[in-house]
Amino acid sequence: MGSRKDGRETNQLRPLACEVGVLSRVDGSARYSHGDACVLASVAGPSTVGARDELSDRATLEVICKPKTGVSGLSDRVIEQRIAHVLSQIVVVEAHPRTTIRCVIQEVNTDGGYLACAINAVCLALMDAGIPLRCCVTAASLSMSGDGDLSLDPTAAEEKAADATFVFAFVNGVDVDASSAPIMCLSSGNHTIEKYTGACDSARRAAAVIMAFFRKSAERRLARAKVGAK
Fold it and tell me: What does the H/E/C string look like for 185-206?
């Protein structure tokens, strides 16, 4: 039995689930969830863009986050900026100059870890759309209690009660050093350097687990496609 209210250990992810190709009117899409937290991401493009907005040497990346209810606010703008920063490092924008790649992230259900869930979902949607990527990216979040205990993949209740929260994103690929630094990190609250380092190490291990989940999911889809083609 774990030490958290949902029975998990402090270093344990919630059950992962994903489904790609769930939307028909976009070029790529994915539904991704950590437990009850669920995000739907779609990708449209590369599409033509007006002459005033086009970039002659690369594609323009556009990220739009939509909350579960209500209209987008300042917090959504911050998340959009963070995700755009991550995507600018993995998408081969030079492959499609004078175009735009539009990523829309819809929060389906709220239960903590939204930014990490959104990054994972949009990476799956980009792969589903066939957008050229330098590598894949996976993300994980943690919370720190008042006693300094770190909990991986916190629920909304755990985030609310935390003294500090962390989100890290890591690239994954055959040429990537497993000990490499995160390409994105976001922390809030009061914490020490030691706790930050511990959170980063835990998130790195979790990101590798999520990447393995991506691979297994892709292998299952390929196996089903081969059976269906016979």
Answer: EEEEECCCHHHHHHHHHHHHHH
Backbone angles phi, psi at 32, to 5 degrees: -135, 140
Place of tokens 């985030």: 159
Q: Give me the mean pLDDT over the 7-22 stretch.
A: 95
Q: In the structure encoding, which two tokens stand for residue 126, read together?
A: 């980009």
DSSP 37: E
Q: Are 169 and 177 in contact (CB under 8 A)?
A: no
Distance (Å, rounded) from C-alpha 173 to C-alpha 79? 25
| Residue type at 69 in one-letter notation | T
Instruction: Compute CA distances 202 → 7, 165, 198, 199, whole Å.
Output: 19, 13, 6, 5
pLDDT in tens, 142-199: 999 999 999 999 999 999 999 999 999 999 754 445 567 899 999 999 999 999 999 9
The pair of structure tokens assigned to 156 is 């909304």
CA angle 207, 209, 210 (to 5 degrees): 65
CB atoms inside a 10 Å sphere around CB 133: 17
How far is residue 200's CA from residue 185's CA, in Å, rounded to a whole number? 9
CA distance 96 to 60: 9
* 160, two tokens: 């609310």
| pTM, to two decimals | 0.92
- Count the Cβ atoms, other than its own, within 10 Å of residue 193: 7
- State the number of CA atoms in the 13 A half-sphere of 188 facing the CB: 8
- Given a contact cutoff of 8 angstroms between Cβ atoms, the answer to whether 155 and 108 are in contact is no
